[in-house]
Protein 1
Amino acid sequence: MLCITLQFRGNCRLSPELAAAFLEAYPRLGRHACKGLHGGHFADNIVGTSYAHLFEHLLIELAVCAHPGQVFAGNTKCLDPVRQLYQVRLRCVVPGESGCEPAV
Ligand SMILES: [Zn+2]
């Protein structure tokens, strides 16, 4: 499992324009499963989400590219909303030959 703590300064929410740019640059990103407030896919939740949540989905995208056939899951947790401190975790759900750690 990968666990990263991130801290942001200033506005750390995605604008509609930035969300559209990311969805265009990474077409599969919007189809990621996502337990957001507005629907079951990341495309439903990307506008207004935190940069930390975007970072989680970009990590998943990179992990899938690096390990085709593997399934990854992540989550983003706000540790301190005043300091904009977030924890992003990524894990391999289906362990395989590529050395992914098994899901715990
Ligand atoms: Zn998500």
Protein 2
Amino acid sequence: MENRGLKIFVVLLMLLFFNPYFLMGEGKQKNLGLNRLNQHPSNPKNDVLSHTQVDILGEKAYFINEIDQYQEDDDGYEQIYGGICYAQSFTPSKGILTQLEIKIGIEYDLPWFIELFVHLEKWFPFLQSMTETLKSYFLNEPSDLVVSLYSSENQLPSESFFSKEIKFADLSTSRSWYSCSLNRHDVISNQKYFIVVQAYNGDKDTYYTWSFGSNDPYRLGTAMVSVDDGATWSHLSSTDFCFRVYGESTGEEPDGTVNHWAVICGVDSDQYTVAQASAVKIYNSLCSHGWYSSHIKLLKNEMGTKKGVLEALSWMDGQEDGDDVVLFYFCGHGEGRGMGIYLYPSEFLSGWELDDAIGELGSHSIVMIFDSCYSGGLQQYLGKNYRVLLMSSQHDESSQGDSDPQIDSGYFTYYLVMGLGGTMADTNNDHWISAEEVFYYAEHKTSMKATIPQHPQLYDAYPSIGNNHEELSFVPL
Ligand SMILES: [Ca+2]
Ligand SMILES: [Ca+2]
Ligand SMILES: [Ca+2]
Ligand SMILES: [Ca+2]
């Protein structure tokens, strides 16, 4: 205590007698940042206004200031300093995020002698610069406040899709809404996202604040805290931080109704003469299980041109949305190593062109079935989140079929249709056949039936690449 008192006294003396402004008799301020402590933050709407102007010039007809999720109750605040992270999860209903606002501020406790100077400078303005110097010397100002957005709590601390640093001096002790433009970031509606704030250094006298509401005011998310840089989190039950997110619709948002849509294509070739018949079998199987024929485009032979397939996929995109189930089926000639498929009349659709078209779809439940030579190679172009790929053979294997009336299709298709036709494939007994279940039903039978090496391949990224434990159910029994 004695040392601290002595130190303060010495510094006061030094400042009093060696401060250049004091010696010059001038009350001029140095820009120490802290000068602006009591000013309001710069206009938080600036980002938004410029963004709107850009959109008007681009003649896009949407309103970016449409508020989507928010929690505005302010019953208190958490202190942010020393590396502790606070987070608030939320669930957007729109597919594009445009803007984030959080209600934040700062707090700092001045030592008594600086308080004294603050009072004195009202009568003696020349003391102002000295007061600021004292503040910068004695306040343990925290690092910039980092505001980030994450799509998973497992992604911290490195994989934020948005991050902004806010300076201590840019905030005020009266907590207010701070706005960040998000540059139209694509999100998955109805999935949880996380707003994370963190600052290092500072102390219990000098810290950032984030307002919160009590009694669980926001039901689609929760406040959380991490004391280990985001490695582990605990929920602050019944608390929600103050936030607002703004968004735009993509038109692909789930509408609460699960509709089923399909594009089914079979193109016969010299190499594979049962393609058209295979496509018809799949079509009939889906219709017999309640899929509406009006929801299916069946493209046989000369209808299965590149233009025809891409137009059908575009039609399907216009129909489906985020909570629908979609199916793309192709039977025909495949290119060596599975770089694409051959359509009518020998038109080539590459794996990446097909991926582009499928990528337009809003559905998060996409089944793709290929009964064609080398189809296993398509996985390298099409293997993405929300997709389950059923491929009739490896990338270096042919696929066989039989025109015998008993079979009259590719072997893989034959056993898929058989699997969809009964209860045998429903291994988890939920009265649905999933893409995964019907694959495992057909896989071994196809290999046994073929007279050449043919090993069907499954690619399962449903519901996502990192988590494929759920089944993509698409045919009810
Ligand atoms: Ca829907
Ligand atoms: Ca769509
Ligand atoms: Ca099942
Ligand atoms: Ca799965």
Protein 3
Amino acid sequence: MARQVDVLVAGGGNAALCAAIAARRAGASVLVLEAAPRFYRGGNTRHTRNMRCAHDSATAWLTGPYTEDEFWADLLQVTKGQTDEQLARMMIDQSKPMLDWIQQQGVRFQPSLGGTLSLGRTNSFFLGGGRAMLYALYRTAAKLGVQVEYEAEVVDVDIVDDRMRSATVRRADGTTESIAAKAFVAASGGFEANLDWLKEAWGPPADNFLIRGSPYNRGSLLKVLLDKGVAATGDARQCHAVAIDARAPKFDGGIITRLDCVVFGIVVNKRARRFYDEGEDFWPKRYAIWGRLVADQPDQAAWVVFDARSLSLFMPSLYPPISAPTIPELAGRLGLDPAALAATVEQFNAACVPGAFDHTVLDDCHTAGIEPAKSHWARPIVEAPFHAYPLRPGITFTYLGVKVDRQARMRMAAGGRAENLFAAGEIMAGNVLGQGYAAGIGMTIGAVFGKIAGEGAAAHAAR
Ligand SMILES: Cc1cc2nc3c(=O)[nH]c(=O)nc-3n(C[C@H](O)[C@H](O)[C@H](O)COP(=O)(O)OP(=O)(O)OC[C@H]3O[C@@H](n4cnc5c(N)ncnc54)[C@H](O)[C@@H]3O)c2cc1C
């Protein structure tokens, strides 16, 4: 006889834990199946720092109000309207009580630290970071009696007439088991760690992508669900991608390999040519486009170059910059043509219009007469030593996922909705994020839809 639980949750990050806790609190027996070993549990959630929730006034850790309207306006702007308005507005509405709910599950917040992503008003930072947040959720889940199994990858789901009957789990030793459940929550992340799938979508450039998070987010469950008739949402090429240090490991480099110094210098490709306005807008509004910009360059490689004056203006990456006393020598160390880089820097320097440099505002330091322009923070690169960081596209998470309704219930490709299949987090993020990103929204999607999915799954199991 197959084991049977009320609610089966696939995944082990924020979305899965919020779903599991909510389902258990609603009275259901809950089993969480996490593909990763215990040490690596929690997927990309381990790397996070904050979540974006609407709130009416300042709190002990937030510097001012962030209304639902402002949140919606921000989402509309970053997605350029590529969002399901009903779902997005519901999520924003539910993000407000989420700040209390998540604390009731043991998560603690702290004021944001300084740095170039100034999110102190809008985003609540986790005390101790994402891993501490995750541990708090695991502790609460354990206290409530949620069962968790590690190295347990859900590899199949038995769906008959839009209803899930059981799931197949594969263990580390290759054995499989079928587990019956009254309701199922898929919270198993995106497919960003599936290099073949990335290549299908992007072609050969995908070979040069680095994956910022968990190697376990391979989209195995997403593929099964789509193959079995669940409706898809989003585009396989849409994802959150930032420029990270090219020396980062292939997987799991996390936040410390991100580079926030683009606005302070120029960015060149392997021909030592600039290709985009480095000072177009504040970095929090632009950092998420640079992964794609670098992905479009030859060999998906770029270098950010700046001078001694800028070195202390940003949060450093894990790796030291590559430095040299002259630009041609720096080019030599980067493997770029010294004459070409010197010419690019000279041309840029000559185009800089003197102004009052201030990296905290959209200042008047800009270029004139070159393409692409640098709109703000353009200072001649003249003071030795000169520094550079090598850049590669760093994929954070993918947006192609399963389509859901307001109850976080999956929709079927043939029409209608699944009876007892729910989804939360990255695996359904594409419903809200057709493109673009607003910092901290990944965790909001996971927590809000996770709670809704867990409660819905428990209610279904109780029928
Ligand atoms: C470096 C970095 C920094 C980030 N910083 C932030 C931030 O500050 N704020 C923010 O909002 N977002 C941030 N994000 C995005 C954020 O991590 C995600 O949006 C969020 O964690 C997604 O939660 P999730 O539960 O859906 O997925 P995850 O936390 O990735 O969890 C997915 C889980 O599913 C498991 N799994 C995969 N396949 C299966 C399967 N078949 N069966 C069972 N289990 C499976 C994985 O092992 C993993 O534990 C960051 C991401 C990265 C990589």
